[in-house]
Each structure stands twice: as C-alpha cells, then as structure tokens.
Design brief:
With about 190 residues, the chain is α/β, with parallel strands linked by helices. The protein has a single domain, classed as Dihydrofolate Reductase, subunit A. The strands form two sheets. A six-stranded parallel sheet has the order 5-4-3-6-1-7. It has a two-stranded antiparallel sheet with strand order 2-8. Strand 3, helix 2 and strand 4 form a beta-alpha-beta unit. It starts with 12 loop residues before the first strand and ends in a 34-residue tail after the last strand. Bound molecules: NADP nicotinamide-adenine-dinucleotide phosphate (NAP). NADP nicotinamide-adenine-dinucleotide phosphate binds next to strand 1, strand 2, strand 3, helix 2 and helix 4. This is Bifunctional deaminase-reductase domain-containing protein. InterPro entries: DHFR-like_dom_sf, RibDG_C, Riboflavin_Biosynth_HTPR. GO terms for molecular function: 5-amino-6-(5-phosphoribosylamino)uracil reductase activity. It holds the Pfam family RibD_C.
C-alpha cells in the first residue's frame, strides 16, 4: 500500500483517534490501557503536535482525563475547548474553555483559536454531530492491534444510514485497505 502523506496544518477539522480494530476509541468507562505497548510510526506525535492548533472535546472525555497537559504526552500545548450543557460545575483550568453552545459554533470558536492550523476533534459524539453537518474534513485513524468488544465507538449511530468515505492514501479513493493480524494467545 502507498505511504501515508504526513498530516499538514491547513485549517482542517480532523476527527483524529487511535482505534481498536473493531472500532472502539476507548474501552468501557473510558479506559485507555488497551493502547499500552502499541507502537506508532516514528515522528507521529511530533507531526500532530506541530499541525494541531486547537482541540475540541466533550465533557465525558474531560471528566475522565481532566488534564490538558497530557495531550500528545505533553508534546502539544494550545487551546482546548470542552463542550458541555453544564459548564458551571467544571473546574476552571488554564488553557481550557468550557463552551455551552451549538456544536457548529463551538467548532467556529476552535477554528478561530487554531489560527490556520488544524482543529482536532477528540470526541466521538461531537465528531458524529459535525459529520452530520458536513463539518469534518478528515477522519484520521491509527489502528491499534487489539479487539476490545466493548467501550466507546468511533461512530455510534444505530439506525443511521451508512456514511460513504474516500480513502486519502494512494490513487484509488474507493480501495479497501488490507490488514492481516494473528491473535496473541491469552495469558
Ligand atoms: N483513542 C483516542 O485516540 C482518543 C482520543 C481522545 C479521546 N478519546 C476518548 O474518547 C472518549 C470520549 O468519550 P465520549 O464520546 O463518550 O464523550 P465526550 O464526547 O467526551 O462527551 C460527551 C459529552 O459532551 C457534551 N456534549 C456533546 N455534544 C454536545 C453538544 N452539542 N452541546 C453541549 N454539550 C455536548 C455532553 O456533556 P454534558 O453531559 O456535560 O452536557 C456529552 O455528555 C473518552 O473516553 C476519551 O478518553 C480517545
């Protein structure tokens, strides 16, 4: 398969996640230990730390990990916006703005703060809402070699219609991607 082009800072809206093979971006109760031991291509963290101008997340993700200094292992600093229906009971935190507004307005605020760099959407629920409104530019995923079977899905939309995608690697926008794994014996 063709090499992935490095991500570029181009004022884009990215739905960016590490994801299990079966489509979960967090385990049950927001657990993230399933990523332990996974390796990522060299320079990946630096690439996204450099191209990201702002992060937009949801309140559940914030409540589970209320520390903006942990984003990209501390390699990224910048404005974090957290969307919630109840900003009043959120702990004020430097660099973090709690927003209670329409999701498109939250994105507009984050885009402005990103100042030409990309906005990363760190929330499955907000990403789904933005996708419905045609406001996601790219879905950018790193598939971790694990099956979770339970947790928080990238795209949870029971009863919804399929969403067509185009592959942004290589020339064939409709190409299926080949992956091949072997289960690790338990224990
Ligand atoms: N794998 C990865 O690379 C990666 C990266 C980032 C995050 N994550 C994980 O992603 C998970 C995020 O979880 P999640 O999707 O369940 O929750 P979430 O999106 O973080 O939070 C959902 C909450 O956001 C608020 N919200 C969403 N849309 C809103 C709107 N239109 N208006 C106002 N408030 C709105 C609501 O908060 P209120 O209830 O307060 O109103 C809602 O309950 C976390 O576990 C995090 O660790 C994974």
């Amino acid at each position: 398969m063709d090499e992935m082009e490095p991500q570029t800072a181009a004022g884009k809206v990215l739905w960016h996640f590490s994801m299990s093979l079966d489509g979960f971006v967090a385990g049950p109760n927001h657990t993230m230990d399933w990523m332990t031991g996974a390796t990522f291509r060299p320079g990946l963290v630096e690439e996204y730390a450099e191209t990201t101008g702002a992060v937009l997340g949801g309140r559940a993700g914030w409540d589970a990990y209320p520390d903006p200094t942990g984003i990209y292992g501390g390699a990224w600093q910048g404005p974090l916006f957290v969307l919630t229906h109840h900003p009043d009971d959120a702990q004020p935190t430097p660099g973090v703005t709690f927003l209670s507004c329409d999701v498109a307005e939250a994105l507009r605020i984050a885009r402005e703060a990103a100042d030409g760099k990309n906005v990363e959407v760190f929330s499955p629920t907000i990403g789904r809402q933005l996708l419905e409104r045609g406001l996601i530019d790219e879905i950018d995923l790193h598939i971790v070699p694990v099956l979770l079977g339970d947790g928080i899905r990238l795209f949870d939309n029971p009863g919804g219609a399929p969403v067509g995608l185009e592959l942004l690697v290589g020339d064939d926008r409709k190409a299926a991607v080949d992956v091949r794994y072997r289960p690790v014996p338990p224990g």
